[in-house]
Every structure is written in structure tokens, then in C-alpha cells.
Write a structure and sequence with these properties.
globular; 14 helices
Length: 293
């Protein structure tokens, strides 16, 4: 009888241990994820907090985590500064980012369709060469690219930012990987119905590329919006500058006013945050489907 009781009492203990281990694992994983999120958000939260502080409170020691008396004076100063046509800078960045993103979505999806569904001589070699360009640093091609843009009379022009960004090797690779998962029977059926090759692309392939297009579009929009080096080289006139270039210039003019610099930084990244939060589910879905296929 004693042996039976010992066995019956040991069974719940072993089951409790087995159920306790996954719980501890989940707690550790969630703790690491929360710590990583807080670490990633810390610079942004500190920037937002400093933009709502006065200049004297920012330099106070020990520093305050949250503003004691939140104020929007830094934002008012930026919006009313006659030397900073903020609306013009926003418009320049929007025109460049939207134009480059639209061109890359078209060229990448079209080239990805060709590489995924067509067979021609040198296809693999050409695709390999395109991927190899991703390993070339921009600083290597910067001078030849500037000479080409100068010959095209696009220096100090927004076109000098749009034309070089018309094609993306990463975009072609992403689109090719996604389009390979589209059934070839749909394309064959469209050909039997008399659709042209470009009609197959526009009516059959393109409508099914929503997640991949959204992913590439958001990545490209954020990259173009935050681009600094190439606009700094090309643009010379103040009215044609984009927001990242304006932010650096504004920081050099008001280096001692940290509150103004932080407020300007918030204004620069605010559109990026809005775009990301609106389309974040498309990003996750597009990356998951592309990687799975």
C-alpha cells in the first residue's frame, strides 16, 4: 500500500515539473523581448521627452526622465523660423520618396516577373550580376554617378535624386522570390485567352503581389526619406534640400539648443512612423510569404 501511495504522489509532481518548464521558458522569452523593445525605444523616447523640455531642463544634472513642465515652444520656434521653410522641405522629401518608391515598384516587379517566369540565354548570369551590385558600397560608385548626373544637368535638382533610384537590386530579388510562388497555370491560361505579355503582368501577376509590393514600398520609402549623403552632394540650394539635410544644417546653426534639435528630429521621423504603423501588417506578411516561398 505504501508503494502505491508513493507512486501516486510522484505522478502529479512529475506532471507539475513538465508544465512548469514551458512556463518558465515563456517568461524568459517574453522578458528578453520586453527588454529588447525598451532598449530599442529608449533613444526615441528620450528624443521625444527632450523636445518637450526647456533648454535649461535638458542640461540639468541629474537629468529628468520626463519633462517637469511640458512645452511646445521648440516646435513653435521651428515652425516660425523664416530661415527654415519646413513645408518646402517636407514637400521635397515627399516628392523624392514617392517618386523613387513608385519607380522601383514598377521596375522591380516587372524585372522580377521576367526573371521568375521566363527562360532566356544568360538569365542566371544576369541575375547573379544584379545581386552582386548589392555588395558594392555606395561610396565606390558615388563619383561616377555624380559625373553622369552632371552630364544630364540634374545637379541641384530633385531629378538628380529620383533618376539614380529608379532600379533596385534588392527589389528585383524580392519580387522574383515572391512571383516564383504564383502558379504558372494562371499565366498559361491568360496566354490561351489571348492576353499580351504585358497584359499578363498588369492583370494577372501584379494584382497578386500586394504583400511583396507593400513590403518593398515601405522599405524603399523609409530608405529614401532618410537618405542623407547623396542629397547633400547633389543639392546646393536651400529651397531644394530634403529633411535629413535640413536637420544637419539646423543642428549646426543651433548646436547649443538641444531642445530645437530634438524637436526637429521628431518632425523628420514622424511621417516614417505614421507610414510604418499604417502598413506594418503588410511588412510582416510580405517578408513571411517571400521567405517561405
Amino acid at each position: 500500500m505504501a508503494t502505491v501511495q508513493n507512486q501516486s504522489s510522484s505522478v502529479p509532481r512529475s506532471q507539475g515539473r513538465r508544465t512548469l518548464k514551458p512556463l518558465i521558458g515563456r517568461i524568459l522569452v517574453h522578458s528578453l523581448l520586453i527588454a529588447g523593445c525598451l532598449l530599442s525605444l529608449a533613444p526615441f523616447l528620450w528624443m521625444l521627452s527632450c523636445s518637450l523640455k526647456s533648454s535649461t531642463e535638458i542640461v540639468r544634472l541629474p537629468p529628468t526622465l520626463f519633462p517637469e513642465k511640458p512645452t511646445l515652444q521648440s516646435y513653435r520656434t521651428i515652425f516660425t523660423d523664416p530661415r527654415v521653410p519646413l513645408g518646402r522641405f517636407y514637400m521635397n522629401s515627399i516628392v523624392v520618396s514617392v517618386s523613387v518608391t513608385a519607380m522601383i515598384l514598377f521596375t522591380s516587379s516587372l524585372a522580377g516577373f521576367v526573371f521568375a517566369k521566363y527562360q532566356f540565354f544568360g538569365k542566371n548570369l544576369l541575375f547573379t550580376l544584379i545581386l552582386a551590385t548589392m555588395m558594392i558600397p555606395f561610396q565606390v560608385v558615388m563619383i561616377p554617378l555624380y559625373l553622369i548626373i552632371a552630364r544630364l544637368n540634374l545637379v541641384d535638382n530633385l531629378g538628380g535624386l529620383i533618376v539614380p533610384g529608379a532600379v533596385s537590386a534588392f527589389g528585383i530579388f524580392l519580387m522574383r522570390q515572391f512571383i516564383e510562388g504564383i502558379p504558372g497555370e494562371l499565366i498559361d491560361a491568360a496566354r490561351i485567352d489571348g492576353a499580351s505579355e504585358f497584359g499578363i503582368y498588369t492583370r494577372v501577376v501584379f494584382p497578386q503581389m500586394g504583400p511583396a509590393l507593400a513590403t518593398l514600398g515601405i522599405f524603399q520609402f523609409m530608405g529614401t526619406w532618410n537618405d542623407y549623403l547623396w542629397p547633400l552632394i547633389i543639392l546646393r540650394t536651400t529651397e531644394r534640400r530634403t529633411l535629413p539635410v535640413m536637420l544637419t544644417w539646423y543642428n549646426s546653426q543651433h548646436g547649443s539648443r538641444t531642445d530645437l534639435t530634438m524637436a526637429a528630429s521628431v518632425l523628420v521621423i514622424l511621417p516614417i512612423l505614421i507610414v510604418y504603423f499604417l502598413f506594418q501588417r503588410w511588412i510582416v506578411r510580405g517578408i513571411a510569404l517571400t521567405g517561405f516561398k
